Amino acid sequence: MGRFVEGEDRRQDFLLPASLDDYVSEDNPVRVVEAFIDELDLQTLGFAGATPAETGRPAYHPSTMLKIYLYGYLNRVQSSRRLEREAQRNIELMWLTRRLAPDFKTIANFRCDNGPALRAVPAITVPLSRPAAARPNIGHPARLKMTPKAGNFAA
Predict the structure, then answer these.
(1) Which own/partner pairs from 144-149 qualify as long-range (CB within 8 Å, at least 24 positions apart)?
(2) Domain limits for position 66
């Protein structure tokens, strides 16, 4: 027994925790991101690829790509290459994407192909992040439009 705290053997097999869900706490913000994006109608917002193509290689679902993008936005990770690395090593992002790890080019193409739709998402998220008493009466969040003055929303 040494005088230092020692780590475990990297080759040691473990039985528990058996699932990725065990590593992400119930109050983790990625669970909010998951719930929010799963409620969005991506086709109405204008995301490309919301309807799968009949031919070719199966694509990543736009909700998976949006989760990666929004996770990066919330954690100040903007580079497609850094998002690719995070998807491969970050447990929260692994949980959020169900262990899918698209390459940087796929992430960059998603940004390019869905620019207008991505700009619509903050208009939905900002009012929903306010306390209920402070929210304007806007009806459905998808009907929000940004006015020229930053921070003002119109129905």
Answers:
(1) none
(2) 20-50+59-123
- CA distances from residue 87 to 27, 35, 155 in whole angstroms, order as listed: 20, 19, 36
User: Looking at the domain assignment, is residue 104 inside a domain?
Assistant: yes
Closest CA to 83 of 96, 73, 72: 72
SS3 at position 68:
helix
pLDDT, tens digit (0-9, with 9 covering 90-100), for 11-52? 777 776 678 888 899 999 999 999 999 988 888 888 888 777
Q: What's the CA gap between 87 and 65, in Å, rounded?
A: 11
Residue 137 within a domain: no
Q: What is the pTM of this model?
A: 0.72
Report CA-CA distances (Å) from 18 to 29, 65, 91: 22, 26, 14
Residue 5 maps to a domain: no
